[in-house]
Amino acid sequence: MRELLGFAQRAGVVAASGIAIVACAPGEAPPASVESAPMATPATAAPAAAEPERWVVHGPATTFVADFLYDCPVVVDNWRPGAVALATATDGTQIRVPAETMFEQGIGPMSVDLYNECTGITPADSSGVNPEAAPIIEVDADGEVISGYIVADNYYELYVNGTLVSVDNTPYTPFNSSIVRFRVNRPYTLAFKLVDWDEHMGLGMELFPQGPESDRMESGDPWFLGDAGLIVRLSDGTVTGDHWKAQSFSISPLDSPDDVIERDGIHDTSAFGRINRGFTRPTCAAESGDVTGNARLFPELAYLPNDCYAVHYPIPDGWEGPAFDDSAWPQAFEYLDAEVSTPRGLPAYFRYTDLFEDASFIWTSSLVLDNLVIARHTVE
Ligand SMILES: [Ca+2]
Ligand SMILES: [Ca+2]
Ligand SMILES: [Ca+2]
Predict the structure, then answer these.
(1) Domain segments of the chain as ranges
(2) Which three-class secondary structure string do you get for the chain?
(3) Ligand number with the minimum distance to the CA of 153
């Protein structure tokens, strides 16, 4: 992840004007279909056909369902729209990108803030943090109360033994962090749905600040490959690490769908190696001299399609529950703090590293290309 300095003024203006709620890409009709857009579920989108092993999408999704899901009420340095779109796969299946989320459906419980610039909850350090600020979500009435802290780039939903316990209240940016409490008996299974959000919808790329309001003109990058990460520590000592399972269900941007192969239950991009932010971008996402990008907030820029691919997989039923068999899934990969962000870029974590003692950031083998990930761990 990187910061979006200079974005604040523009974002504030747009939000205050109310225009952004119905803003469209140049030449695009207003989103009259927003209310009636089908909640396409890959697992059920093609009931008459055999379940496809994968869906391939070529180019960005251009059918927008929502221009932004979250409107920060104050001006912050790093606010992004959190749009949702429908991508059409080569077999005609429509896939909601970057993901179907409980946030979009308005289903909670919404997360309680550890750090959130939009709500003004920004303790200077962990001494100002009260884990009891979070209500106790009942999984088992006679269980043990567990509290904990979560940082996810960009979005998470947490299930405990199949019960939805916390929904990230900020789907894209600014980068926030959360407090969670729940009551449960052991063993219990933690299951996270994780989304690395994007602005080239469905292609896993961000739009870095462009245009006269940006103070980062020189580093503005209309095809920035967004990266991800999850770190969790619970009061019973449970921490994220490579003993967790993590499987990817949406992989982009790719020069070819053949860059992903299915191997022993893994949606495998290991030919690229372990990928962090140092990843050399695919040719399809290479920077060019042209000003391009999804200019939804910068209509002076052209919206140009590109030649990248995305590969999507259906999320299996029951993924959130304790009975789900994740034995064939790959182990999670650990990432160093410095591979994920910086103290300046992610105060939601770096101010409170003592609350995450012994925990590591995790993701799949690709911190960059894997944009919809399920991570699971059972606490015995
Ligand atoms: Ca978030
Ligand atoms: Ca991200
Ligand atoms: Ca990404």
Answers:
(1) 7-34+51-379
(2) CCCCCCHHHHHHHHHHHCHHHHCCCCCCCCCCCCCCCCCCCCCCCCCCCCCCCCEEEECCCCEEEECCCCCCCCCCCCCCCCCEEEEECCCCCEEEECCCCHHHHCCCCECEEEEECCCCECCCCHHHCCHHHCCEEECCCCCEEEEEEEEEECEEEEEECCEEEEECCCCCCCCCEEEEEEEECCCEEEEEEEECCCCECCCCEECCCCCCCCCCCCCCCCCEECCCEEEEEECCCCECCCCCEEEEEEEEEECCHHHCEEECCEEECHHHCCECCCCCCCHHHCCCCCCCCCCCCCCCCCCCCCCCEEEECCCCCCCCCCCCCCCCCCECEEECHHHHCCCCCCHHHHCCHHHHCCCCEEECCECCCEEEEEEEEEEC
(3) 2
How many angstroms is it from 197 CA to the middle of ligand 2?
6
Span of 22-31, 47-56, 274-283, 287-296 with lowest mean pLDDT: 22-31
pLDDT in tens, 22-57: 333 333 333 333 333 444 444 444 445 555 689 999
Distance 286 CA to ligand 2 centre (A): 18
Nearest bound ligand to CA 174?
Answer: 1
Ligand 2 centre from 151 Cα, in Å?
Answer: 12
Q: pLDDT-derived band of residue 287, with 50, 70 and 90 as boundaries?
A: low
pTM (two decimals): 0.83
If you measure from the C-alpha of residue 342 to the centroid of ligand 2, how many angstroms do you get, rounded to a whole number? 13
Cα(22) to centroid(ligand 1), Å: 23
- 278 Cα to the center of ligand 2, angstroms: 14
How many whole angstroms from 360 Cα to the centroid of ligand 3?
19
